[in-house]
Amino acid sequence: MRALEIAAAGMSAQQTRVEVISNNLANMSTTGYNARRAEFADLHYQQVARPGTINASDGTSLPTGVQLGLGVRTTAVSVMLSQGSLTQTGGDLDLAIEGDGYLEVTLPSGVSAYTRDGGLKLTGDGQVVTSDGYPVVPDITIPSDARSISINAEGEVYGYFDDQVQPQFLGQFTMAGFTNPKGLEAIGSNLFVETPASGPSLVGTPGEDGLGALRQGYLENSSVDPVREVSDLIAAQRGYELNSKVITAADQMLSSMVQVR
Question: How far is Cα 81 from Cα 181, in angstroms, rounded to an integer?
Answer without folding.
Answer: 8
